[in-house]
Amino acid sequence: MGVASSATQAGSREGLGVAEATASIYQVEEYASLGEPYYLEVGDEIGLFESAFKQRVPVLLKGPTGCGKTRFVEYMAHRLGRPMNRAPSGSQDEAEGRTPLITVACHEDLTASDLVGRYLLDSDGTRWIDGPLTRAVKLGSICYLDEVVEARKDTTVLIHPLTDYRRLLPIEKLGQVVEAADGFLLVISYNPGYQSALKDLKHSTRQRFIAIEFDYPPREQEAEIIAHEAGVDMSVAMDLSKLGEKVRNLKEHGLGEGVSTRLLIYAGRLIATGIPARRA
After folding, report:
1. 119, 146, 253, 275: least surrounded by Cβ within 10 Å?
2. Whole-prediction pTM value?
């Protein structure tokens, strides 16, 4: 990805000063997907998402871990925008028509400031830095909050004004209210199987989204995904898919969690390098 690789390159150049290195790190909003992410539709999720995007309706993705929720969002961000190279700052021609994706991995220590922004100290005093949610609102991006129930409940409440007809983001520290730009869409995901009564999505939050349910793909489709992503023969991919199906059926016999499609892809990649199937 452009941001991560650029930051690594900037920080690793010999003799590069801190100020110069910082200036070399590309901004998040300068990037969108360059190539189409691989995604195999299982139901009608693509059509539902496109309709929600056109009608500005927030989207909730429900499903077990490793079933393709994040890949689906990446695919839709590409599908609804267009492939982009790095655009010069302020280049209107390059910026038109793109739908960047800004992803936030939620956790229990995630605060409102982590999403909205905060003041930072530098050599000139203090300056305000927009958080990922604020950047998405201003740019008209898709903002994806992954595993949103892991965040504190007082943090998730701040998205409420963005999920109704107002489409507003209050920034209390600045005394401002930012209206979402065209193209902004809020997408959240969570795994209902991991949640408890003490950690679940509030009803007042859940009712603001349309829900798209995900599950592991049927055997044939999962094998096709494994073959494409892992680079193995279809016969090997089918064997892995059958194994995953059998392990998932053991959940009824006390197994805490079934094997995910992601894990089967990892096993396929090891097999493709010559690792014996039993070891993979």
Report:
1. 253
2. 0.79
